[in-house]
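hey m, so remember when u said the tokens were messed up on ur end? i reran from scratch. heres the input so u can diff it against urs
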Amino acid sequence: MDPELLILLGTAIFCGFFVQTVVGFAGSLIALPILLIGLNLPDAIAYISIFYLFSSVFLVYKEWKNIDRNVIMRLGWASAIGVILGIVVLTYSKPVLLKKALGVFILLYVVYVIFGKKNLKLGKKRTAFFGIMGGFFAGIFSTGGPLYVIAVKNTVEEAKIFRATMIGVLAVVTAVRIPSLAVGGVLTLSHIKISLFILPVFFLAQFLGGRLFLKINEELFKKVLLVLLCLSGTALIF
């Protein structure tokens, strides 16, 4: 067991899921640049996908009664197509180009958070398009969340239903991504075994993030997070 790998993985998973727990987004966008210091992109995606699976099982169980199943059905098939396309690109594309593409995606995400329209109206075809593109970026970078926010927010208005439905959509994406990564040879038994050593760090991140959420100025934290995302996105590009 490589101690350097465990330290890198533990640091990335702790930072990513700590942020995810506090503000509800950007876990992958925080964890991926850290993992890419010592891992190639497919390995980094494999590890993040495993921990998203752990997180999804718990959250879906907790929020099941609030999930809008109609939205899940509408986005599920489109997301499955997108995830498979994303994993094909992840498997056969050049790592350097993908890192630069990830940097561009992170910066576009920051722009969307700052300037994005809150009430974008989508028809059925556009909703399906956002589902496919969300699945694509989830497959290639484990970061399809921003596109799903647009699609789900177009249909669901009540805050608790929106949050629960987002959890459900991302759980479906994770359920498709895990076997697809395994079939594509990106996810292996070795990834799973190593991830088990990091589980305590994952649980600690969720616990501390939940405690901090009750005390922190969330708006200030989000602004700091966007600055960090800008720096990491720029670093990946250049």
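this time it looks ok to me. Residues 159-183 form the longest helix (25 residues). if urs says something different then somethings off w ur setup not the seq
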